[in-house]
User: Fold UNC93-like protein MFSD11 from Pieris macdunnoughi.
Amino acid sequence: MERKFMNVILLGFGFMFVFTAFQTMGNIEKTILDSIRQDDSTFTADGYTSLAIIYATLAICNWMAPSVITITGPRGAMLIGAVTYLFFIITFLFPRTWLLYVASVLIGAGAAAIWTGQGNYLTLNSDADTISRNSGIFWAMLQCSLFFGNLFVFIKFQGKTHIDVETRNVVFGALTAVSVVGIVFLLLLRPTRRAPAIDDAKCEIVVEPEGPLDAFKGAIKLFCTRDMIFLSAAFIYTGVELSFFSGVYSPSIGFTLAMGENVKQLVGLSGVFIGMGEVLGGALFGILGNKTTRWGRDPIVIMGYFIHMTSFFLIFINLPNVAPFGDTMDTSYITPSPYLAMLCSFLLGFGDACYNTQIYSILGGKYSDNSTSAFALFKFTQSLAAAACFFYSSKALLSVQLGVLAVLASIGTAAFCRVEWSDRARSRLAVDNVDEKLSPVTHSLAENTLHYD
Assistant:
């Protein structure tokens, strides 16, 4: 197998195992912490607050991530980040309010390192022909973490209305072991040289910074460019919908007691269906990577937009308005249906794959000469939006949250398409200019040939 493609596969396995632990924990954190508070009155930590701290810290630290990577390199940054994920999972074995919040800060900083390193490393192992394929494959492997981890939770939570300490510790122990396996895969990553620039005709030329201070200045300069400002609207939407499906939607299903006695196990099953949608989307766009590059990225993003809008409407009529706050017997416009809830989980996952695979593709292609800063800015904007969503999730009704998602989806999709269409127009113009410059030479050669004949 070609060396760089092997690196992408190893990267996918490393993230799959590390995020099997974290994404599963994020999905069940609100439910788990509610059970811990029932057993221990001194424990007052809140799941939404913990997740908000994580993403707020991630947003802030993303500005420093390019500077860190100039010192550690992408592989070193990913390893440092992965260790903080391991520490976060371990703290659940020793539930203390202060410890959870400290771990939330640390994992936020580690997430900035691991994600910026990942974006840079993926770009280094891709070129113009493979960036869409590699982005899709990596995304599919990453989102397998939602499937395996939540399937395990579904089995362990079966028949339970309260998650007891023994069940919790088994889940935490298993997720800790899985996180260690992911770190081992990241240790196996091999160094690689920078690939030739991707989509040179479309890139905004920004020289890769050499030192930490230059990296920071380069990130600020890139953030102020017109196309990056437009793309930030799409980044904001992915952050808000990420926080919704990863930390709000599945617990809301578990809090809707009208769905039946085994409603708590639906929290894990929801994560499984989200993962199925993510994996299917990533695999599909990975297989069709060359075709999507030729057709453009905008049709896939527009498809994701309509899929998400459909899921938002179905969630609105299926779940009660107060579902994000805790256990409730309330209903919405229809009797809450577990089957419809799982369908919405799948649609949320598939739509998210539509957005994220194309964002990875456009960043890896358009900003190949400055990929570290580009991916850091993506994670900064996305994480800031996710943190804001988690802060208001504990107070905003479900209908309000869905309304915010619908508005941001419309703005973000329009902004992404604006950048994609502008790039396509610039690319056609560059080709036309080249043809105009070559046509006199071609005409002259033709005349000389005729004269010779």
Summary: The domain at 1-191 is CATH 1.20.1250.20 (Growth Hormone; Chain: A;). Residues 398-452 form the longest helix (55 residues).
